[in-house]
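Let us practice reading a record.
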Amino acid sequence: MIWFQRRGYKLASIEAYGLSKNIIKLAKTFLSISRAKSIIKNFKPDVVIGTGGYICGPVLLSSTKLKIPTLLHESNAFPGKAVRMLAKKVDAVLVGFEDAKKRLTNAKKVVVTGSPTKMTYIQNNNINERPVLLVFGGSLGAKSINDAFKGIFEKKLNNNYDIIFATGKTQFDNMKEYNNDKNIKIVPYIYNMEEIMNKVDLIVCRSGAMTVTEIAVVGKPAIFIPYPYATENHQEYNAKVLENIGAAKIILDKDLNSETLSKTINEIIHNKELLEIMSKASKGASIEGVENKIYEEIQKVISST
């Protein structure tokens, strides 16, 4: 919210909770439709765009009633409940992955545009003397991934490759002791992620929609460990987008341990032919000109309505 205000954008808020079993929350969600309608009437937009999540419901329902052009964008391979519910009401649904399209059969129009990201592909002609593994679990980290790597570090299973490891700011103190190993660089957070992702040989991480999108953009092989508590297990569906084309391997969180993870890493990171095959498959999954595609669809919706 502060980010928007600092850049001069005006914000208007509604109170919504989705299809909650709590009667009070449910009532507030339905009341937010009239609040959203009032805001939209006052603002007079040319088009309304939702990006998923329950907050989109009241806003887009109000917009369709007011006959304003509406679009949804879904970054995940498995569309959320709000997107599936609204798909048949909005003018178009834009999706980040082809897999999402087949799950929106009730939509008026679905277009695979990809998801916008700041990540770009940087041609890297330098060959690492030793293979380099990048590990991260998001800004807060991923405890199960960190714990699995503790076992790898303690058993010295990583002597034949280097690691750049972002533990998450809340878990750095529990991992920083392993910085004493010359093969390991542990930091709480990576600020130059674009540069690092382009330079490494293999990535171990969760599989949020934007992470999977960015890995495809830079064309890197990955070992995904989907967050097991993600809504409707959408992270596993995201990971399968790259696994199904041979660009990634999946280890479920319940199966994660230092031995399984180390075995999977070593099967990939020392096989140059496999690394190249997976990299090409990963890069092949990226979509060029995402922003232009989205803009074109917005223009089409506005002009047709």
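A brief commentary: Residues 23-43 form the longest helix (21 residues).
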